[in-house]
Amino acid sequence: MLGFGTGLGLIVAIGAQNAYLLRIGLASPPRTVVAAVLICVTADAALIIAGIAGVGALVGSAPLILVVARYAGAAFLIVYGALAARRALRGSESLQPDGSKALVRPLLALLAMTWLNPHVYLDTLVLLGTIANQQPDAARWWFGAGAVIGSVFWFTSLGFAARLLRPLFARSVTWRILDAVIALVLFVIAGSLLVGM
């Protein structure tokens, strides 16, 4: 239960990955949403397990890895923030998927937002790994299982519950507001990465 609550507490905050998964859930066909949820869950599970296995301590002892990831992640988030800001200004978004690109393009962007975001490493490898390893031997893996279940619950809910908001997003102005919020979130996260927070 502790792992479930701690894992949820770390991933529920609106970040780049969550905002983009919401966007995918709103506008993409079900197969894209399934693939997107699987990407998020698999990445979280792999990183949580690696953190419990001790990779977090290794990453913590090699700060250059985090510095490179921080700047690469910030650059990526700035580019995607600019694209979201452009969509917000143009207001041309709709709920219709864009054909053959409806699967590949959003999933590639989601993979980049997942793996180029240094916060995901800090939250899963370092923080969850550290908390898990403070538990008694067998309990640390139960903690990790709870954190993974929290991740599955959150990403599945976010990806598929987004469909409930589709009537609201039938209007262009709602898309413009969402894209403006996504741009703001991406710029704030990029800024925090650049100043080292």
TrEMBL record:
GO terms for cellular component: plasma membrane. The keyword Hydrolase does not apply. One of its GO terms (molecular function) is amino acid transmembrane transporter activity. Pfam families: LysE (PF01810). Keywords: Cell membrane, Membrane, Transmembrane, Transmembrane helix. It is a multi-pass membrane protein. The keyword Cell membrane applies. It is found in: Cell membrane. The chain crosses the membrane at residues 6-26, 33-58, 64-83, 141-165, 177-195. This is Amino acid transporter. It comes from Amnibacterium flavum. The lineage of its organism: Bacteria, Bacillati, Actinomycetota, Actinomycetes, Micrococcales.
